[in-house]
Specification:
With 348 residues, the chain is of the alpha+beta class. It is built from ten helices and 16 strands. Strands 13-6-1-2-3-14 form a six-stranded mixed sheet, with helices on both faces. A two-stranded antiparallel ribbon has the order 4-5. Strands 7-10 form a two-stranded antiparallel sheet. Pfam families: LytR_cpsA_psr.
């Protein structure tokens, strides 16, 4: 009994010590301090083009500092186009740790911007990635939305293939008929609208990439058209849905046994400014996260057929509707982001 008692005391001491060490070493990540408006900043005025919003009442007063919410983090997620080098997928996410809420918002790759990087001038946000990498993309998103980006994650598309295969495939409802052939890329995408089970990594990648459908008349002549036209949905919504499906599979009990495989895949295919301690913290907090009730998704609303300085098919944001998404899903501040804090370029 004495031996049993001593053993129990030792085990208890180890557990308590481990718990104390964990809480001392795994701390919430530090984030960028909010900007401090200068005293010579322009006083807030009401914008006549936004009749539903009185900026003179909502804009922070001159010299007033912004305050951040407790343990509220923002993330920029990006994947490059394998052909052009532009960003093929851009999303911004937020994680409200105390309330266990995650928001995932798609930034259309053709989002209208007007920026210069070095000698390059570009008008669509996907060009930021090609000209200046993740740093330029991060700067462009921050300027456009008026909020800081705490962390970034860039993913080689091969990672999607490997992760999906590692978890044994995913189930997903394909929202449209997909029929696209590009022989020069050895790319052939054919899926009927409906529920598909056990999709492989390569199949998930094909569904995520599909933008156009093609009609071939012979070995040389063909036409292409927007695969999502008239469907009531869009490619970004499909990509978000696939991300959620993969995340659910990753968080499932059956996937936990493959943690070593995931670590290896991520090390080879993911670049991020998250430190090992940051990852450990978020992993420890995500244990309590519930996908079905804690996750919300959206896309910045606007028009995708805008021409700006000769550049066609730009996505021009609906500023008021987009501002609402920023404040309800992504805003890390304790006060609302206002339109004068953002820079959503308009064609007219």
């Amino acid at each position: 009994m004495k031996l049993f008692y001593r053993t129990l005391v030792i085990i208890s001491a180890v557990i308590v010590t481990t718990f104390v060490v964990w809480n001392l070493t795994i701390r919430p990540p530090a984030v960028e301090a909010p900007p401090i408006p200068t005293q010579d900043a322009k006083p807030p005025v009401d914008d006549p083009d936004t009749p539903d919003i009185d900026e003179s009442q909502t804009t922070p007063a001159v010299g007033q500092t912004l305050n951040r919410k407790d343990r509220y983090y923002t993330f920029l997620l990006a994947a490059g186009d394998q052909v052009s080098g532009n960003a093929d997928t851009i999303m911004i996410a937020s994680y409200d740790v105390p309330n266990q809420k995650v928001s995932l918002v798609s930034i259309p790759r053709d989002t209208l911007v007007d920026r210069t990087h070095g000698k390059n001038h570009y008008y669509k946000i996907n060009g930021a990635y090609a000209f200046g990498g993740i740093d330029e993309l991060k700067e462009a998103v921050t300027e456009m939305l008026g909020i800081p980006i705490d962390f970034y994650v860039t993913v080689d598309l091969k990672a999607f293939v490997e992760v999906v295969d590692a978890v044994g495939g995913v189930d997903f409802y394909v929202p449209i008929d997909m029929n696209y052939d590009a022989p020069d890329q050895d790319l052939h995408i054919h899926y009927n609208q409906g529920q598909h089970t056990g999709l492989t990594g390569q199949q998930v990648l094909e569904i995520a990439r599909c933008r156009k459908n093609s009609v071939w008349y012979d070995a040389v002549n063909y036409d292409v058209y927007d695969a999502y036209a008239g469907s009531g949905t869009n490619r970004e919504e499909t990509q978000r849905g696939l991300m959620v499906a993969i995340a659910k599979k990753l968080l499932s009990w059956g996937s936990l046994t493959k943690i070593n495989s995931f670590v290896d895949i991520l090390q080879r295919n993911v670049k991020t400014n998250l430190s090992g301690t940051d990852m450990a913290y978020f992993a420890s907090q995500a244990v309590a996260f519930k996908m079905d009730t804690g996750m919300s998704t959206a896309i910045f609303p606007g028009a995708g057929d805008v021409t700006y300085k000769g550049n066609k098919w730009c996505w021009e944001y609906d500023r008021e509707a987009s501002l609402e998404i920023i404040n309800t899903m992504l805003n890390p501040y304790t006060t609302d982001v206002t339109l004068d804090m953002t820079h959503m370029v308009q064609a007219n």
